[in-house]
Write a structure and sequence with these properties.
Blueprint (H helix, E strand, L loop, with lengths): L3 E13 L2 E8 L2 E8 H4 L7 E5 L1 H4 L8 E6 L13 E3 L7 E3 L10 H5 L8 E4 L6 H11 L5 E6 L10 H8 L5 E4 L8 E2 L3 H11 L4 E6 L17 H10 L3 E4 L3 E2 L9 E2 L1 H10 L5 E5 L3 H13 L2 H4 L1 E5 L4 H7 L5 E2 L2 E2 L4 H17 L11
Parallel strand pairs: 3-5, 8-12, 8-13, 9-10, 9-12, 10-11, 16-17
Antiparallel strand pairs: 1-2, 1-4, 2-3, 4-5, 6-7, 14-15, 18-19
């Protein structure tokens, strides 16, 4: 199941917020590897390290890197000293975190005494690459509002892997982060999506929340076999707790696979068959030919019978990204190569601002 090799650290290219980008000498061949310093300790040139080489040997695209399992010259980690909740449970890599829900947590009573999200807007994406365009558009227009990012365990588990999160936090565009399930390493750790949403409202006083998995996604080409299916249960949880659920549809006209053309089969499956509640789905008004296909998909799947589908005019995505000096990439494509994908995430921010400001929120309460 796991391929392991021993290598020597040749150079350290970058150290960024818990993630070391290094080069290792593996039997005379210089290769790239990542070290999660908070898990496996600091590395130095010349250290002997044990690598997980599985993904590279499988020639994987997403996640196709070597990862350090252990540094034989430094066995100490840098994770938090407190906490009793385990993540990566019952594996050789299990780590303890200081979870918000714990009895000893200063926030325990906030969780215990929770009553409602009070219509707090929560935007749910399916790919990590949706985060940056959404954040750029939201924060450009709402620089003083508090935005919280909840990272699920649908893909990468350590939040340290996300350079998007690191960049957005450095620029002050994400105010706080939360990791849930077996994901870990955020400003706050929670056991599940319910307590994470409660933490965002009751502890962090968020004005808006964005939820998605970290970098990476698993797909099989089957109807239900993809990790982005988590969008459905998350939207259900938001509604159950009294929040205002907004779903970003996965839209592309650059993807060569027919099942991802227009509204992806991933989104259609979630909206039609998985989510149990009515949600808000903003659709960008693309050019006539592309929008015609999208409208046909909406009609054929009867999405308007179940959800609030709203068309949003949005030509601002690129300007919003440029305003903060942000670059985006998804499935190897940048904004110019797949603008409809990134516009969909940005339009969710504009929809949120349209319906969820203080003046109009009450009109949308259930």
């Amino acid at each position: 199941m796991i391929s392991k090799r021993v290598a020597i650290v040749e150079s350290i290219v970058d150290r960024t917020n818990g993630l070391d980008d290094i080069r290792v000498n593996l039997n005379g061949d210089i290769q790239r590897a990542y070290n999660y310093s908070k898990m496996t300790g600091d590395v130095n040139i010349g250290d002997e390290v044990v690598l997980n080489t599985t993904a590279v040997e499988l020639s994987l695209g997403t996640g196709g890197y070597h990862f350090i399992i252990a540094n034989l010259n430094n066995l100490e980690s840098n994770l938090t000293e407190g906490g009793h909740i385990m993540k990566l449970r019952y594996t050789p890599f299990q780590v303890k975190v200081d979870s918000v829900e714990e009895q000893e947590s200063p926030y325990h009573d906030n969780i215990e005494n929770f009553s409602s999200l009070d219509n707090m807007p929560v935007v749910v994406g399916t790919l990590h690459s949706m985060l940056t365009p959404f954040v750029a558009s939201y924060k450009k227009n709402n620089p003083n509002k508090k935005l919280v990012y909840i990272m699920t365990d649908g893909a990468a588990l350590p939040i340290f892997l996300s350079k998007n999160v690191s960049t957005l936090k450095e620029k002050g565009l994400i105010d706080n982060t939360i990791t849930i399930g077996n994901a870990f390493g955020a400003d706050y750790d929670c056991i599940n999506i319910y307590t994470a949403l409660i933490t965002a409202k009751e502890v962090l006083k968020a004005d808006a929340v964005f939820v998605s998995m970290g970098p990476g996604i698993a797909g099989t080409g089957t109807k239900y076999g993809f990790t982005g299916i988590e969008q459905g249960p998350i939207l259900d949880a938001i509604k159950k707790l009294g929040g205002f659920p907004i779903a970003i549809p996965r839209i592309s006209f650059a993807d060569k696979r027919d099942r991802h053309r227009g509204i992806s089969h991933h989104s259609l499956t979630v909206f039609k068959d998985i989510v149990n509640v009515d949600v808000n789905i903003p659709i960008t008004t693309y050019d006539e030919e592309k929008l015609s296909l999208i409208k046909e998909q909406i009609i054929n799947n009867k999405l308007k019978d179940k959800h609030n589908v709203v068309y949003i005019k949005n030509d601002n995505t690129q300007n919003d990204l440029n305003h903060f000096g942000l670059k985006v990439r998804s499935m190897g494509r940048n904004y110019e190569q797949d603008k409809e994908f990134f516009d969909a995430a940005s339009s969710a921010a504009y929809y949120l601002m349209e319906v969820c400001d203080e003046r109009r929120r009450k009109d949308h309460k259930q």
